[in-house]
Amino acid sequence: MDSTDAVRAGLIPLLPRLRRLARALAGQAADADDLVQTVLERALARAAQWRPDAPLDKWVFAIARNAWRDELRARGRSQNLFVPEAAAAVVDEGASARPADRLALAAALAALPPDHREVVALVLVEGMSYGEAAEVLELPVGTVTSRLARARIALQAHLGKDA
């Protein structure tokens, strides 16, 4: 099996996690769908760059992070990326939380800076360890830890809960 076939076969089981990550990064369902498509295209086009001894999910999540950063740069960082209707998009469609709670959480996530949203998406949504997230984001573990701490404080403040 060549690298393209191996990547193609490995992408299929990663799709739910990739979509969840994209929703956490992008906030809006349509933007997340576009991001997933871009990531899949890039992964397949660059399959020869993947090392079979490296975890495919980390490689694909790094592609997702870079693709989302490219999109943010293209849009311009000062532009408002989230319209009020986007708050209706939830990160986890299977969540049992009340709709109002899901809306509040989606709005709180959307309000985070992109670098904090990335860390939240990888650690809290995807369940990666701090070390794994640091690898994907190409950051020191301490930076991941501090960004996550600041993101948690911001989320708690936005949701009106005590720290």
Which key terms come to mind for this protein?
163 residues, mainly alpha, Butyryl-CoA Dehydrogenase, subunit A, domain 3, 7 helices, globular, sigma factor, RNA_pol_sigma_r3/r4-like, RNA_pol_sigma70_r4_t2, RNA_pol_sigma-70_dom
Account of the protein in words:
Residues 103-155 form the RNA polymerase sigma factor 70 region 4 type domain. Belongs to the sigma-70 factor family. ECF subfamily. Residues 13-63 form the PhyR sigma2 domain. InterPro entries: PhyR_sigma2 (IPR053866), RNA_pol_sigma-70-like (IPR039425), RNA_pol_sigma-70_dom (IPR014284), RNA_pol_sigma70_r4_t2 (IPR013249), RNA_pol_sigma_r2 (IPR013325), RNA_pol_sigma_r3/r4-like (IPR013324), WH-like_DNA-bd_sf (IPR036388). This is RNA polymerase sigma factor. The chain has 163 residues and is mainly alpha-helical. It has a single domain, classed as PhyR, sigma-like (SL) domain (Butyryl-CoA Dehydrogenase, subunit A, domain 3). 69% of the residues lie in helices and 0% in strands. The protein is built from 7 helices and no strands. The chain has helices spanning 3-26, 29-45, 56-75, 99-111, 114-125, 130-137, 141-159. α1 (3-26) packs antiparallel against α2 (29-45), α2 (29-45) crosses α3 and α4 (99-111) crosses α7. The longest helix is centred in the N-terminal third of the chain and has 24 residues, at 3-26. The protein is globular and about 50 Å long. The N and C termini lie far apart (51 Å). The model is unreliable at 77-95 (pLDDT under 50).
